[in-house]
Amino acid sequence: MDPRFIRNFCIIAHIDHGKSTLADRLLQATGTVEGRDMVEQVLDTMDLERERGITIKAQAVRMTYTEPQGQTYQLNLIDTPGHVDFSHEVSRSLAACEGALLVVDATQGIQAQTLANVYLAMEHDLVIIPVINKIDLDVAEPARVSLEVQQAFGFAEDEITFASAKDGDGVEDLLRSIVQRIPAPAGRASDPVRALIFDSKYDSYKGVVAYVRVFDGEVPAGERVRVLSTGADSEALELGFFRPGATKVDRLGPGEVGYIATGLKSVGDAPVGDTITLSRRPAQTPLKAHEPLKPMVFAGLYPADGEDYLALREALEKLQLNDAALTFQPETSLALGSGFRCGFLGLLHMDVVQERLEREYDLVLLATSPSVAYRVVLTDGTVQDVANPSKLPDPQRIAEIQEPWIDLSVITPASFIGAVMDLVENRQGEYKRMEYLQQAGSDGDAASDSVRVLLEYSIPLSEVLVDFYDRLKGRTQGYASMDYSLAGYRPGKLVKLEILVNGEPVDPLSAIVHRDGAYHHGKELVSKLRTLIPRQLFEVPIQASIGNKIIARETIKALRKNVLAKCYGGDVTRKRKLLEKQAEGKKRMKRVGRVEIPQEAFMGVLKMTRS
């Protein structure tokens, strides 16, 4: 199609503001999906997405829209996730578009992810069309939310579209705005081919299937294609687009969004963010690459059955192709055997990856407690990145330990300001600024319950890792939202907390913690382990230590065999001799005996540290 009549856009919003439902209505209004085939969240194809009610993977779909004047347009829509852990999906999608629909819930207004996504879209120089959604609800306040959007982002009132993705109200107006306001893609068919890989997956028959946006040139089916950064050449086995099912075509032209089945068998040959060109006439300069995101949370993934190690490695390689933010490297634990140290963008990302591995690849996994990556400055001036607490150098070699800090944004109703401040400051947060998202009304009541406030803090990443979000929701009755971005590293009072069972360290349970909270963390761990490890024939001490100093201890009492059962009579010295012999045996057993920690104990403790 002539690029003048192509529009590429994505939908961005905070989680649960109605992106996927709006995509459903657009598909319905353009006749892309027949009424009998229509299901809710038609673009959320994973079972996990439907069960959790969230979008995890960005999805592309082609629609055809005909204006009342008779002109037909090709609309390429990319539906994106809203959760902060999947912001990399949003970033990649924006790079393939010229415009974005900014969806804001008429009952909730601007939320933390709304701000983050708008700034991301502005960085990519996209045309943004604001959409106030859910205007059909009784509690909707479209006028207030519209004013909020105008004040926060500088939109004019006539630029805002009011819609109900549930009922379909305003969808026709939105389609007209898309073709009128979003610019057509640039690029000429005569130029050398440059196509951006914004996502990919692995197919057993077709190899690496790259989801692409063609910027320059035309890609014909059957031609040999090349991935610019790796130099890998292969034949384009199949070309097509999504409607929303895969539809084959003979060629993809400039401005079009679709897929290329490359036939490449190695998952690393076509990385996301790379440029595909033709082998016979390659482009000289790649497109601006998508910057790879650095993992923020690390955890060990081990197969419950050691024989599944190779299957786990193969599954991680295939999943990594579909999820560029996932990293992994082999590691071995005396307690858990062979596994992988994996990097994630957050706890939800970690949870989703683990569940996908278990569902899609039939694996039973054990995950260690999550931690962040620390930067260790040694006494000789060298710097090491340590993601696994067991790999921390000896204390004598450490000059300082630096931990990652994040810039945290919290949006909350004004009535909960005190509760939020108390929570963040108790987690070592440093206040930066506060801003009212809505100007005071005529009565000057800027602090009323309906007015919401943006609070910005700097805080250690480790402090928000496990239960911060749940506590934030609890303290604000579910009204607060949060977003964060990595700010850098700062020195901290950090120590390595080790758990000793019968004097032997248990590596999977070691952690790097703040010195002030080390005692409570250690006490909680040893108390839990005491109830989970079965009793032995000898007394077993469970200790939490920092270096050579024991800070907490619990003891599992020994099972005692009744050695006097057959001693019916005789002098008391006979009984004493039997008891002394038993005591000697227990001492010797304690010296040479080993405590096998059952996997149920590990699972119980690791669940506790992630709850």
Kindly summarize this structure in a few lines:
The chain is of the alpha+beta class. The chain has five domains: 3-181, Rossmann fold (3-Layer(aba) Sandwich); 194-278, Translation factors (Elongation Factor Tu (Ef-tu), domain 3); 297-367, Elongation Factor G (Translational Gtpase), domain 3 (Alpha-Beta Plaits), CATH 3.30.70.870; 397-491, 2-Layer Sandwich (Alpha-Beta Plaits); 496-610, Alpha-Beta Plaits (2-Layer Sandwich).
The CATH architecture of the largest domain would be 3-Layer(aba) Sandwich
Count of alpha and pi helical runs: 13
Task: Give the terminus-to-terminus CA distance.
Answer: 52 Å
Report the portion of residues in β strands.
25-35%
Please give the oligomerization state of what you see.
single chain
* SS-derived structural category: alpha+beta
Mean pLDDT: 80
Spatially, the strands of the biggest sheet line up as: 11-10-16-7-8-15-12-13
Principal-axes shape call:
globular
Number of discrete domains: 5
List segments where confidence is low: pLDDT < 50 over at least 5 consecutive residues: 440-448
Q: How would you characterize the largest beta sheet?
A: 8 strands, antiparallel
Radius of gyration over all CA atoms, rounded? 29 Å
User: What's the CATH H-level superfamily name of the largest domain?
Assistant: P-loop containing nucleotide triphosphate hydrolases
**How much helical structure, as a percent, in the residues?**
25-40%
Number of strands: 31
CATH topology tier name of the largest domain: Rossmann fold
Give the class-level CATH name of the largest domain.
Alpha Beta
